[in-house]
Recover the amino acids of this structure.
């Protein structure tokens, strides 16, 4: 065993260091099994001090560090690939850092370790009569540190914002082992740069997130849910506008799916059920919420949908009459990733444009796909309330397996759809991040000045490029 690994063992003990190949294997492959890397060890600190010791040792021995949360990302950001063209590094997993540190009900702040799962945060908030309004399909596995590192979104961004808006304070270990603590979670603190924002969305390239203070919200007293068939994406946008005028901030989710997406889920996930006997060409899932238990959300939703039906925007609608029916709607929505994995090889795009531009973007992206990739079909789910469009170009497993260079094909698809997004004033990554998947695309399409400033920050905090090398930057 090397002096470096011996040092890690002394600092962390047997539970904190995995060196057997069998133990390492599960930590170096993305959850869809599409990319596998190498690591000389998996390190599992149980405290911020242990994480600091790990970073000091890695810095002293010039060993790359690859942070790992729940391994639910879609852009290979947690796959340790440095061994391809540099020294083999270590994976630093956060699962042993899983403490709820403190709850401040009056301040609406929950402080946690980075390895706490999203579902555990939901439970802790609910126990205190509060809610943490980030929801996504992997919440039982996804960890807070990873969600912060990727600035995760989910279905509630239209009302509450992405993870960046939900982090009140942050603790991180810098590449040299120093601990940055901004856990005060103050509403006002005008003492210079808000450094925590650098680490949110940085994908582990600036340091290791070890703790966070999360903003909580009052619990929702009443909700209303519906699954609505619309004529097309423009009708969905018009419906959103009507709903905003009538319900304002009560809109918690507004999700649009095309027929291919719905049929994919229906065909592969037997435990879920569609609201419609015949799949509509386009449909929208709506959730309204209000802290006032007496708010007439159901009546407001019915009124808006009735008016939209008269205007020809809505063809059919199913309004949930109880919590069980509401849960069925969102269980269907959150089964998308699982269904895609079974269905084929999907090149998933995480594009975003202004929601008013979503119909034009989808039309242009469909045209490009039909022209360039006739073997594929298009599956669309859009967080339409915030303009995020997951435009998936889905290839059959057999077709993909026969390709001589799958990586080149994936890049070809990504370039085609990203070009459409940029033409419509959009971005190539709304909530999934860049990871290793989109590094060349960020280099190709990103603002050169912005990228130069990002590199300057990276060099300042991580001059040896030891933190997650190969992610975010070429």
């Amino acid at each position: 065993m090397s002096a470096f690994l011996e040092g890690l063992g002394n600092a962390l003990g047997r539970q904190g260091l995995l060196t057997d190949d069998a133990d390492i294997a599960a930590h170096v492959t993305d959850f869809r099994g599409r990319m596998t890397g190498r690591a000389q060890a998996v390190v599992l600190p149980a405290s911020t001090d242990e994480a600091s010791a790990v970073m000091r040792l890695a810095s002293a021995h010039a060993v790359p560090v690859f942070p790992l949360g729940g391994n639910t990302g879609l852009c290979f950001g947690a796959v340790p690939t440095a061994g391809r063209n540099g020294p083999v590094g270590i994976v630093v997993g956060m699962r042993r850092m899983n403490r709820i540190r403190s709850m401040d009900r009056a301040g609406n702040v929950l402080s946690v370790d980075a390895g706490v799962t999203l579902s555990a945060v939901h439970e802790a908030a609910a126990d205190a009569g509060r809610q943490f309004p980030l929801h996504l399909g992997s919440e039982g596995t996804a960890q807070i540190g990873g969600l912060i590192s990727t600035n995760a979104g989910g279905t509630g961004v239209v009302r509450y914002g992405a993870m960046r808006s939900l982090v009140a304070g942050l603790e991180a270990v810098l590449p040299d082992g120093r601990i940055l603590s901004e856990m005060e979670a103050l509403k006002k603190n005008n003492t210079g740069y808000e450094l925590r924002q650098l680490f949110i969305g940085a994908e582990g390239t600036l340091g290791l997130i070890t703790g966070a203070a999360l903003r909580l919200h009052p619990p929702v007293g009443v909700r209303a849910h519906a699954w609505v068939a619309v004529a097309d994406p423009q009708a969905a946008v018009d419906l959103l506008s009507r709903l905003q005028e009538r319900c304002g901030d009560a809109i918690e989710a507004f999700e649009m799916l095309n027929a291919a997406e719905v049929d994919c889920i229906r065909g592969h996930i037997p435990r879920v059920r569609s609201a419609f006997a015949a799949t509509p060409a386009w449909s929208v899932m709506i959730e309204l919420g209000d802290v006032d238990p007496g708010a007439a959300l159901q009546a407001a939703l019915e009124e808006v949908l009735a008016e939209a039906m008269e205007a020809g925007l809505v063809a059919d609608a199913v309004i949930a009459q109880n919590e069980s029916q509401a849960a069925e709607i969102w269980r269907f929505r959150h089964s998308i990733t699982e269904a895609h994995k079974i269905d084929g090889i999907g090149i998933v795009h995480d594009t975003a444009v202004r929601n008013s531009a979503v119909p034009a973007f989808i039309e242009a992206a469909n045209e490009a796909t039909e022209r360039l990739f006739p073997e594929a079909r298009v599956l669309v789910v859009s967080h339409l309330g915030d303009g995020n469009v997951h435009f998936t170009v889905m290839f059959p497993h057999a077709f993909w397996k026969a390709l001589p260079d799958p990586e080149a094909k994936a890049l070809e698809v990504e370039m085609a759809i990203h070009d459409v997004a940029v033409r419509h004033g959009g971005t190539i990554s709304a909530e999934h991040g860049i990871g290793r998947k989109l590094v060349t695309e960020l280099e190709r399409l990103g603002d050169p000045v912005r990228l130069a400033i990002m590199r300057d920050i990276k060099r300042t905090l991580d001059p040896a490029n030891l933190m997650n090398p190969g992610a975010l930057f070429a």
Q: What stands out?
A: The first helix runs from residue 3 to 12. DSSP finds 18 helices and 16 strands in the chain.
